[in-house]
Amino acid sequence: MSGPSTYVPQTGFTRWLDQRLPLLRFSHDTILTFPTPRNLNFWYAFGAILTFFLGVQIVTGIVLAMHYVPNADLAFDSVENIMRDVNYGWLLRYMHSNGASMFFLAVYVHMFRGLYYGSYKAPREVLWILGVLIYLLMVVTAFMGYVLPWGQMSFWAATVITNLFSSLDQVIPHLGSVIATWLWGDFAVGDATLNRFFSLHYLLPFVIAAVVGLHIWALHVPGNNNPLGIDVKGPQDSLAFHPYYTAKDAFYVGIFTIIFAGLVFFAPDLVGNPDNYIPANPLVTPPDIVPEWYLLPFYAMLRSIPQKLIGVIVLVGSLLTLAFIPWLDSSRVRSNRFRPLMKQFFWILVADCILLGYLGSQGADALWHVGGTDVPLVWLARLGTAYYFAFFWLIMPIVGLIETPRPLPDSIAKSVLGAAPAE
Amino acid sequence: MTADPTRRDFLYIATGSVAGVGAAVALWPFIDQMNPTSAVLALASIEIDLTPIQVGQAVTFKFRGHPLFVRRRTPKEIASAAAVTVTELPDPLARNENLPEDAPATSSNRQIKPEWLVVSGVCTHLGCTPTAFEGEYGGWFCHCHGSQYDNAGRIRKGPAPQNLAVPVYSFLSDTRIKVG
């Protein structure tokens, strides 16, 4: 979508630089004049919000690393030292821990937005897959970061997640145990594990930033999708990214920052688990171990399966499924605005993910009292898991074939401006 | 490209192969450094004094970084575990390192002396520590994902695939065991 460059260097220096390293030309074409569909709504601000929170996590993370000690005997106390004695340490740590929550909140909205408006469909498959890769890297980074304070939840989260690999013992004897030992650097989660997680937790955000670069590159080849899901047909359908979308994105980043500040200053431990303020104890598992809220739906799926290896396959499959979406959707129409049937299944999926999140937060043997009977919640989780997989592997391919989409508008400009498009 | 391999082709392939093998060999230290260090591998065994443990009590010790359960079973518990036939068990193997790998999971194959059960406290599902005297089978209940073990440490219900492992141990006297 980016046409020939319209950059004209204004000074002698910029002309000189332009012939040697056209950095200003690149910035001008990709940030200032980049043609962007004129009908992007609120839901398209989340790319900017995510970029902002990646920055928040990297900046707060770098300064926290100046005070944190990755040693099993000292880690917990060093975090308390940050909270009590380091100047503004409490603020920086709460920004980092709540920043992760905001980051995941934004990424889920961003993913559901892409799903709703069909942003994964041709020619944006690579863009979507890079997004899935970023999400997977975020999950791994967040998991390792959660281990670092070395509280009870840190320790047992590390134990449970690394033990997922031991399910491979059921495929090839000892394979899983060998991998788990290799990951731990010990026969249990311990000091060696903490050290390597710290090293990788520091590295991965920069890998994420690099993949975000590729993600934006892949976005700038076909250009943005939009709520109508139809292609930009000419200049009348688009606006320059600056000032129109820089201003719009900045406004919503501001709104999100207010929510973020509300969490940090008024409810900093709202989404945290109190058990993580108990130092790690390898001999006592907390009564209910739960992951952070943003991983609860996947945890519910893992727990709903009574067989270890299949449980792990379901967990991994639920994540990898996302990468296949571009080829699972058989519809020729991108946006759910014009897909009356798919729209309903979409909202059921949103509700399903929220339900699974709730189920993941409940105890392993929790019951649901309906009428006079007790239904084990695990059965609800099984239903939820079944719908999650059915949505992608059955509903998406079938609904696209049987559904009659509503008529698409002729152009973005006509749809936005009504009968008389401004030329 | 000519049809017949030349001396130059051979040199290219040989050079490339040396570089490839060299790169692979150079990679190994970076992978192997993740494995347990010599200090970790030099693990000691532990000795446990059994005298303070009362009948019906289960005590947790630390062995090689993991919890280890030592349980002094009541006659009633011993009888209930012995009454279970191996065919009812999800995992039919004893998982007892003191016995051959294919030993069946009978109650007697799970311990050296019927009164004393010594098992790893690591749930075979995802490594949590189960809680004693909970669950439908009176053994252990794992709160993480709901696995239930009987009083011989055998998996009875839930996602865990195997019985709790019995480590290598021996009785030094009637009241003292050496584990590892």
List its traits.
heterodimer; A: 423 residues; mainly alpha; two-stranded antiparallel ribbon; 4 strands; B: 180 residues; alpha+beta; four-stranded antiparallel beta sheet; three-stranded antiparallel beta sheet; 10 strands; 21% helix
Overview of the structural elements:
The complex is a heterodimer of chains A (423) and B (180). Chain A is mainly α and 423 residues long. Chain A contains 15 helices and four strands. By secondary structure, chain B is an alpha+beta fold. Helix content of chain B is 21%, strand content 24%. Chain B contains three helices and ten strands. A four-stranded antiparallel beta sheet of chain B has the order 5-6-7-8, with no helix packed on it. In chain B, strand 2 and strand 3 (66-72) form a beta hairpin. Chain B is elongated, with a radius of gyration of 25 Å. The interface between A and B is large, with 41 and 31 residues.
